[in-house]
């Protein structure tokens, strides 16, 4: 039997799930104990008390029936009433009121059931709010009202045990939840630190809590340190290689420019320019998206400025829908570089580009679409890797890059805890590239 459908009704947070695990058994135990107490103890006492009261009532009815008239009947039973703690009076048939028991008076309902079986002459039974009970029975002299206190047929304080049990259960639950919250706090701090690091922020974190949580915290710190070392080594390596290549390239360019045969030097100069462009791309990739701290940025204004700059540069770019308002913590330089790379790819492989922004309470989406050939679905994951060249699926007559454009965009998105998603553009028919960042 599958219980997958229960997942839709379960709480999502760790606090809520822990509270459910803590509170649910307490509620079940309270219900089981309450039902067992009512059925096995309380109802048994009420049954015995009602049986005793019904025998006394039957005795009074027999005494009344044996009397010649109402006056004689009252005179006959009057000496017995103080000992029985009851009172009697005769009524006319039309004076008999309807039965009355409050909906939550379970003891009264049980007494009514038992009294109806024990006293066949019963006409109606009323449990009043002042704890008085009125029993109306039929006699040979007409309807008779028998009044008594409900303590004769029910336990006077049946709720004391239940109230005490519920009060102590609530007290222990609160104490347990306070202790549980202290145990869960190190886990939430670890989750916050991991989430912040995933979004490119290095927040201070010190392991605490239980042994297992401390072990996970130390493992996270070791992992974070290794990742930072790898990023630093990658940056230093690419920066060093690219920087060292600049000097010989500059000498080559200077030497070629001094050749007398310009026709012979022109193709070589183009090769040198291409190599310099590759070096600049390597440097851009090596810098990555982790050089600045995130700052509150208006993504709509930033994208609008990027598109205006692209239009001034003669690129066929237009603005699409700009939905939402507010600011998001972004590394503006890295996101700007990422959007510019997407626009460059769009106009390189297509005839026009369309840029749109959707800002919601939960996420930021920057979308760049083109009318080019797009990227097949089975090659999109490969396209996000550094130095990936998917020229067979793109236009060759508009030039090709070094395969770092989408990798730079992916790095920028991941540094903000987001992702780059590639799909087919519904509006233009080409590639649709979405930078999605959670808020």
TrEMBL record:
It comes from Pseudodonghicola xiamenensis. It is a multi-pass membrane protein. It is found in: Cell inner membrane. This is histidine kinase. The keyword Metal-binding does not apply. It catalyses: ATP + protein L-histidine = ADP + protein N-phospho-L-histidine. Its EC number is 2.7.13.3. Keywords: ATP-binding, Cell inner membrane, Cell membrane, Kinase, Membrane, Nucleotide-binding, Phosphoprotein, Transferase, Transmembrane, Transmembrane helix, Two-component regulatory system. The keyword Phosphoprotein applies.
């Amino acid at each position: 039997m599958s219980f997958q459908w229960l997942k839709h009704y379960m709480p999502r947070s760790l606090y809520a799930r822990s509270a459910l695990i803590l509170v649910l058994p307490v509620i079940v135990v309270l219900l089981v104990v309450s039902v067992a107490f009512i059925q096995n103890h309380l109802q048994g006492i009420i049954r015995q008390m009602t049986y005793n009261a019904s025998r006394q009532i039957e005795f009074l009815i027999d005494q009344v029936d044996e009397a010649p008239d109402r006056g004689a009947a009252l005179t006959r039973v009057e000496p017995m009433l103080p000992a029985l703690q009851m009172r009697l009076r005769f009524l006319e048939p039309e004076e008999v009121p309807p039965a009355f028991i409050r909906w939550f008076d379970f003891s009264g309902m049980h007494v009514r059931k038992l009294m109806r079986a024990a006293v066949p002459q019963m006409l109606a039974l009323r449990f009043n709010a002042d704890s008085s009970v009125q029993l109306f029975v039929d006699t040979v002299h007409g309807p008779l009202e028998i009044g008594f206190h409900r303590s004769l047929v029910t336990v006077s304080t049946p709720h004391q045990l239940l109230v005490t049990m519920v009060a102590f259960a609530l007290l222990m639950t609160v104490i347990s939840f306070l202790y549980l919250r202290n145990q869960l706090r190190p886990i939430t701090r670890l989750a916050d630190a991991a989430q912040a690091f995933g979004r490119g922020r290095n927040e201070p974190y010190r392991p605490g809590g239980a042994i297992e949580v401390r072990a996970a915290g130390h493992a996270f710190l070791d992992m974070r340190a290794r990742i930072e070392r790898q990023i630093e080594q990658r940056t230093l390596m690419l920066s060093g290689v690219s920087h060292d290549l600049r000097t010989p390239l500059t000498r080559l360019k200077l030497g070629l420019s001094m050749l007398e045969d310009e026709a012979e030097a022109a193709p070589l100069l183009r090769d040198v320019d291409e190599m310099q462009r590759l070096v600049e791309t390597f440097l851009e990739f090596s810098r990555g998206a982790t050089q600045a701290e995130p700052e509150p940025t208006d993504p709509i204004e930033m994208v609008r400025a990027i598109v205006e700059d692209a239009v001034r540069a003669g690129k066929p770019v237009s603005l699409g829908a700009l939905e939402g308002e507010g600011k998001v913590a972004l590394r503006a330089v890295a996101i700007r570089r990422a959007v510019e790379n997407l626009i460059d790819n769009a106009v390189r492989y297509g005839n026009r580009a369309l840029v749109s922004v959707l800002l919601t309470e939960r996420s930021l989406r920057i979308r760049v679409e083109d009318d080019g050939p797009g990227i097949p679905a089975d090659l999109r994951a490969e396209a996000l890797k550094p130095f990936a060249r998917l020229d067979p699926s793109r236009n060759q007559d508009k030039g090709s890059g070094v395969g770092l454009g989408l990798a730079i965009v992916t790095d920028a998105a991941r540094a903000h805890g987001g992702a780059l998603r590639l799909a087919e553009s519904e509006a233009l028919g080409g590639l649709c590239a979405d930078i999605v960042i959670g808020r």
